[in-house]
User: Fold these one by one.
Assistant:
Number 1:
Amino acid sequence: DKMAKKAIDTIIKTARTGKIGDGKIFVYPIKDTIRIRTGEKGQKAI
């Protein structure tokens, strides 16, 4: 996904110091989304 790649590249570019503690990025599929306040699910919750 182009949008995910762009986001990942931006995070790496701005957050990398080359030192221990820079962190990790985890990328995985999302099964579902639920907006707690309204109970909306799926695309409507985004």
Note: The mean pLDDT is 95.
Number 2:
Amino acid sequence: MRLIIFTTRTKHHTYFIQKIYEEFDIDQIIYERRVLNVSYKIGPFFDREQDDYEELFFDKTAGGCSRQIPEILEQRSVDVYSVNQKGMREFLFAHEPGLIWVYGTGKILPHIIKVPKWGMVNLHGGISQKYRGLDSTLWAMYYGDFESLGLTVHFVSPELDTGDILQQEYLKILKSDEIYHYRYRTTLLATRVSLELLRRFKNDYTQLKASPQLPGNYYSAMPLNKKMIAYNNFEKYKGQL
């Protein structure tokens, strides 16, 4: 099974890659540089606090890893503006991937989705039947929907976050949580679930059973003023625990 990962160069993705590599060979890592540009203000919103908290990814006493991926993986890494750009389809076909695992890139076009033999799998940090797109955790908090925090692992389809679901798990708010803890917690969940699915696939690819979903509404990046409402809702909910 040849595995390719689409992702970005961030702390949490560095952690994810290394944990996957502890058990599975990674043929190529494609790092996307494309960023979202919006006409409204979306931050700063606990950016420094989140960055400091995510140092846990590199704390060996907390199960963390190295700050740098192994040299052999750097040699297999390619930085691109977009995973859809010219030449990517041919590059991917040359590596004959069985699976492509997607964690944190932008929308992927059909000519790329069709490349891997067994499919392309996305890690969506939310419950996709209710919140597709960006900032799904914050949108759930904004609407006071604290039962809809979690992770959806699904096959990639042309429309964002609508593919058949392989696995879905929920996160519960803890009394000790801060709002900037959730990317860390979601990353741990995404790593565990990905390893479980890859183990099953390695043993027998037919075990990767997926269920059709009724997709939820699509949400773009949350404006800063709405993030503050989500934060206030979160603090109020946590205070009632």
Note: The chain is about 35% helix and 15% strand.
Number 3:
Amino acid sequence: MPRLLKKKTTPIGHVTYKGRTGLTNKEKAEIIADFYADVCDLDADNVALTPTQERISNNISAFRLDKPDKNDDDKDYQRRMQTSPKEIWSIIKKLPSKKAPGVDEIHNAVIKNLPQKAILQLYYIINAISTTNHWPTAFKKVVAIPIPKNGKNLVDPGNFRPISILTGFSKIAGKVVHARLAVLEEEINFLPDFQFGFRAKHDTTLQVARITDGITDNFSKDKNTAMALLDIRKAFDRVWFEGLTFKLLKIGLPSRLVRLLDSYMTGRTLQVRIGTELSTERSVKAGVPQGSVLGPKLFAYYLYDMPTFSKTRLALYADDTATYAHSFSAEVANRQVQLHMYQLVRYFGDWRVELNSEKTENIIFTRKYTENKIITKLRVHDKPITEKSQVKYLGVVLDKKLNYKTNIDKTLTSANATLPQLYAMMNKKSGLDMTNKLTIYKTILRPIVTYAAPVWCGISDTQMT
């Protein structure tokens, strides 16, 4: 892709954390690594475990010490888990050549040019992983590259988004296990219907359409919809290891596979890279590995048993959580949402998941012209949640009348901002043929304009006003 399409990188100035200030790239990498390690340390909160959490922790500790029975699980487990050189080669061919390497500094382009003997050795290693239920230590090392968040104070290390990079070999092994998990997921059928994240034949557009169809259907019945959008603090980074392993066993996954996944999660290390400087290693004590295909799926498994409520509906896409209720009275609908939120707050507390009350939002969808006064504000941890006139869910702006005007305006603004960057390649004198121009349009511009289009494309001009 031409250089003009690449995003400009913001240089990292000095960063400060816990009274320390980093000026050189090495110092900044060490400070940001400390911050990321603290985020992934649930014990740093100094909150004592409840008796139930203590029991779960002890049970999983005993499970880890237990030697697996050779006859554990059904006889076809090993057959299910075994890979082949052909499968490994098919995964390698799809690796993006220009991705940054992990801590081993082995680029995907190198892996793609490995001789057959090396592919065969990798095949033996990955099969040994499933046989021994052990994820190699070398595959657990992660390099994080901090990316500045737009418009934030970049002195605070919390205002950098980490891009996690695993080694290429770890990604290959992860994709092999992921394929087996996907099959078991369908067989056991444990994920709830309201979880749309990282599942076959599910996507963000379908989840938003599911919600908005329900809202518009109730508009026709003269009903309002109250919705709460819950924000989970550092969701992927703070998954409780013992809690997740407990749930994997509860789901009914083969115990040997659970041992393998437990090994995959625990004992991981993190290093931060800024420029050419790399921090020393930090232990990762919680969270699912980001930058991997297994991490998002394991997170969805962690929340598979989220409690439902008869008067509300749930919508999940990974950690993006919304609960909503329909009623002739906006106040009644909001109270129903509040009752469900009491359950959800207890559930999250039980599993050491922290809700961010400051980022949790409330909205009332209505097309009534009479005032729908909300007497009782939603609360999370006794903190009131401000009612909004519009919210964003899975990238779509939902206003209280569902006329999508703001969403369409933002889509056009984004597309118009992208268009000048493409002009050098798309104008008549660029020298590119029409086939390449069409490819650029389909790859870059069209996805911006058509994102979630099935949700909002039927809106008329009068509805937008």
Note: The CA atoms of residues 33 and 421 lie 35 Å apart.
